[in-house]
From TrEMBL:
EC assignment: 2.1.1.216
GO biological process terms held by the UniProt record: tRNA N2-guanine methylation
Name of one Pfam family that matches: TRM
Entries under InterPro entries matching the protein: SAM-dependent_MTases_sf, Trm1, tRNA_met_Trm1_C
Family recorded in the similarity comment: Belongs to the class I-like SAM-binding methyltransferase superfamily. Trm1 family.
Protein name: tRNA (guanine(26)-N(2))-dimethyltransferase
Top enzyme category: transferase
The organism's place on the tree of life at top rank: Archaea
Spans through the membrane: none
Entry-linked PROSITE patterns: SAM_MT_TRM1
Length: 386
């Protein structure tokens, strides 16, 4: 066993050994990427919400004996939590290319007495996924890489079964949300824009990238849950290995427009060439729903647990509310209150809009973000007292 400082931690219902992050400080903060094996305690939110989503998925589809694959496992914390905390799991496949990670995963599995449920591999993730595809596939695939999931999407789609659940994390939020537009074009084949709702543009580009890989294979996708939490995006989607569903998916790819003069924003369908060019466009991107509201209300929420961190439960609540709002990009209070000369509390904006009979909900993408079907210029005029 490699020799480096380690500590025992508890997360969810498991206890695992991880590198002692207090020995890997950069600036004045622990830097998980500098440790011999990657463990980021902040990603508990991602892992806990994934447990709620996968448990919800099991109930939603009525599947039993599911096989879950995590090709980039790090310490194994996620795979181990899935084996312990998800109902109806028959097998979890855990994998990492790093020797040290592989050793640690094996040790953590033994400590938790889960060696008959979890199979461990030390392979390149793409090799593993291709092997799984040849051997009959699996029901859930969780791609949680450093940076972009792009290199693993295509083979995940090969390895997943029909109506399986594909979950991806992307930590390159800056690239997807317009900080490095050319890099986004290279990596995702889509142009982001620094629209006020650029964090929503980013997650929609991520979804449409998966959708376009799926389309090329005659598959379709449907997001069940999507969110941004600080430094990463997370999307969990159903994959349909069905040509008819691929056509449905194609209808959900298009562009987003934004007009600063009227505050108008929205979507234009028509991939690969949109019909209108009056606006600045961003895309191609996903223009369909980011959430399946029925899944969230009836399955995901029931899958959240008291022992999740308060942040995980908070994100779950925010998304549950936001999913009931209209599928129109979020707006910022600063857009409708720019000339007011003072900060406009978001709850005031929401009350004004609701008072006029329109929908308005907060958006988790931004502290000043809200989603409404009202005409924003009209709202701005009302707020300015015109
Ligand atoms: C962000 S960490 C995974 C964290 C883990 N999923 C969790 O929830 O704690 C990414 C992991 O991918 C592994 N990795 C990087 N490239 C890989 C590849 N091509 N195949 C398999 N593993 C790889 C790294 O060694 C690292 O442990």
């Amino acid at each position: 066993m490699s020799d480096y400082p380690k500590v025992e931690i508890r997360e969810g219902l498991v206890s695992i050994i991880v590198p002692d992050l207090s020995k890997y400080i950069v600036g004045n903060r622990p830097e998980p990427a500098h440790a011999p094996v990657f463990y980021n305690p902040r990603m508990e939110v991602n892992r806990s919400l994934s447990i709620a989503i996968i448990n919800g998925y099991v109930n939603y589809t009525g599947k039993s004996n599911i096989i879950i694959c995590e090709p980039l496992s790090g310490t194994g914390v996620r795979a181990i939590r899935y084996a312990r905390e998800i109902n109806g799991v028959s097998k979890v496949i855990s994998n990492d290319i790093s020797e040290r990670a592989y050793e640690l995963i094996r040790m953590n599995i033994d400590r938790n007495g889960l060696s008959d449920i979890i199979n461990v591999h030390k392979d390149d993730a793409n090799n593993l996924l291709l092997r799984i595809a040849r051997e009959g596939g699996c029901d859930v695939i969780d791609i949680d890489p450093f940076g972009s999931p792009q290199p693993f999407i295509e083979n995940s789609l090969r390895a997943i079964r029909d109506q399986g659940l594909l979950c991806v994390t992307a930590t390159d939020v800056g690239v997807l949300s317009g900080k490095y537009p050319i890099k986004c074009v290279r990596r995702y084949g889509a142009l982001p824009q620094k629209f006020p709702y650029r964090f929503e543009v980013g997650i929609r580009i991520l979804i449409s990238t998966v959708a376009r890989y799926a389309l090329s294979m005659d598959y379709g996708i449907r997001p069940l849950m999507s969110f941004l939490d600080g430094h990463y995006y997370r999307v969990c989607m159903l994959v349909f290995k069905d040509r008819a569903y691929a056509l449905e998916t194609l209808r959900n790819i298009g562009y987003s427009y934004y007009r600063p003069s009227t505050l108008q924003r929205g979507f234009i369908s028509g991939y690969p060439i949109p019909g209108v060019n009056r606006y600045r466009l961003s895309g191609p991107l996903w223009i369909g729903n980011l959430w399946d509201a029925e899944f969230l209300m009836n399955y995901f929420m029931k899958g959240t647990r008291d022992y999740f961190s308060s942040r995980a439960r908070e994100v779950a609540g925010l998304i549950g509310e936001e999913a009931l709002g209209p599928n129109i990009p979020y707006a910022l209070t600063t857009e409708v209150g720019r000339d007011l000369g003072r900060e406009l509390p978001i709850n005031d904006v929401i009350s004004i809009i609701r008072g006029l009979g329109y929908q308005a909900v907060r958006s988790h993408f931004h502290v000043k973000g809200f989603r409404t079907n009202a005409d924003l210029l009209r709202i701005k005029e009302i707020i300015m007292g015109k």
